[in-house]
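Risk register update: the risk that structure generation would not scale has been downgraded. Supporting records follow, first protein first.
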Amino acid sequence: MKVISSVLFLGFLLFSITSCQVKKKSSERKAPASSMLLDTSRVSVQYAKGFKVKYENGICLLEIQDPQQQKKRCYHFALVPRGQRLPKIPTAYIPIEIPLHRTLCMTSLQLSNFIELNALDFVAGVTSVRHLFNPTMQKRLQEGKTLKIGIEGNFDNEIIMDVNPDVIFISPFKRGGYDTMREIGIPLVPHLGYKEMTPLGQAEWIKLIGLFTGKVKVANERFAQIEKRYNYLKALVANVKKRPVVFSGEMRGGNWYTVGGKSFLAQLFRDAGADYFLKDDLRSGGFTLDYEVVYSAAAEADYWRIVNSYEGDFSYDALQREDTRYTDFKAFQEKGVIYCNMRKKPFYERMPMHPEEVLADFIKVFHPDFLPDYQPVFYERLK
């Protein structure tokens, strides 16, 4: 027993020394130049339901919770200007110095915030790069300035410890795998923009990243531009007399995946002057349905929205080869498919921050006379 205890103690001591050396090495890396001066602008949240901000004693108190389940756990963080003497902080709040030096991104939605803020220097690690288009991030990966850290549930903890991020933005309602990160004391900050139920609510999470990077003024300005354009387009078709019906999704593994009538996507369709085929459904998230259920509700729908990652040129023939039953839908027969190929369009890294572009794409299909000269960004009517 004494031998075993000695071995365990020596192992723990070696790990502690190594961790300290890694931390020292990582902390000596230069922070992005843009983080040296703190932006003193303030955040005001209007659309997002997943985070709240208030200011007390010169610090920013941040509360984060699931936008779809407001009674679930709330996460509390106190954002303190870097180098400032730590003020008295409410007990429930975890202190974090801002602006950050380094962080990790777990989702494309998070990355889209950093891209929009021109703040990719802060991103020291990312997970999947499957649908990555951004040339700056591609270059950072090639040069080793940003590292691949694995995927949720199977992270490379050695890389994460070497990067030594100030915080890690996580998606705690997905697969997880964050236990090791939590144990070594890296603050885990939930980024729940993907659970927002409105397009502008999702886009407003850029303000949260603005807080952490010291780019609040830029975040406020960018969001204001997006909001203005979105609301202009929404008002443009608000009083259309004919509202087409649209449905979404495809068969996968014997089931049809779709989203509820209170979802982000359903709101986009409404704002584009159309009716979602499940508009009376009260669910906000995704779920699966039998083919027969979808067909009974969408057989006569005017349009069919599809997003996938298809190698080559997607077509009605390709759609028919996937499932011959698709030909029974009116939207198939009358060439009403609205399509986005993620292999060719920066859908995941740009769409979350630009709902006004998605809205314009849909309006161009549903009510083309309102935007005669507009060139689609993501979606086009399949030819």
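Supporting record for the second protein:
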Amino acid sequence: MSTKELWTAAPDAFLVPANGTFKIAGAPTDPPGKVDKSDLEDELEQHVGAIRDLQRKLYASDDYSVLFVFQAMDAAGKDGTIRAVFTGVNPAGFQVSAFKAPSHEELDHDFLWRIAKRLPERGRIGVFNRSHYEEVIIVRVHPEFLDKQKLPRMDLENIWAERYESIRSFEKHLARNGTIIVKFFLNVSLAQQKRRLIRRIDKPSSNWKFNPDDVAERERWPEYMQAFEDALNETSRPWAPWCAIPADHKPYMRVQVARIIEATLTSLGVDFPTISDEARAALADCRSLLEGQ
């Protein structure tokens, strides 16, 4: 599979170009027109079924590993989208890693160390709910977090460019060695995030999701949007493209993510392994033995 085939697996409408021209202010957060929720639910079900079947072929073929990265502001719908899109996949070939604040052990290593530990094996789909991009988004908005990272030098003028370079090299290395990477930025608006945060407060079963810090972080929205824009422009490449998905309408968002995931898995051309004539004859002998027992 060429990088061009992977690159074109995502619709141009959502693909972040590799030439550094992406503008987050011009990226939609809503569907382009009216959408029918029932139609979207039916379409999602079709994509989910296809993803389930493709994942089983991926697992059986054991050729590629596939990594889907999800980044977004809080309340954009990462958890629900991952749950909805990957319903029914074989747990033996699927893993989700959620990255929170780094531990003491993780802080004693470079920022990519904990990421490398969670990469999917060949034949598996790995999902990152947040990822190494926290280090050029949250840490960029809060550079004071760098104080805990025990860096040998502190060069705020160059550190972000250096981290982008490290990420690009890391992801290209993975791609060269058989890991397919697609990254999703779930693009929620400030107004929609507010509505969802209030809903978490008003709905008792969602209270546990609410973090008071999210309210304070809204004051830094322009800084976060600049950090996202720079990160996407610096790291969207043919071997690891970013897709900016409108996230204000959850059913629409989930369908678009599912479409891209299905297209990516389809582009691999994986299938169940075939066996030799000799092996097939051995199977026939085993069947005869079983019938006679």
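Residues 37-61 form the longest helix (25 residues). On this basis the risk owner (M.S.) recommends closing the item.
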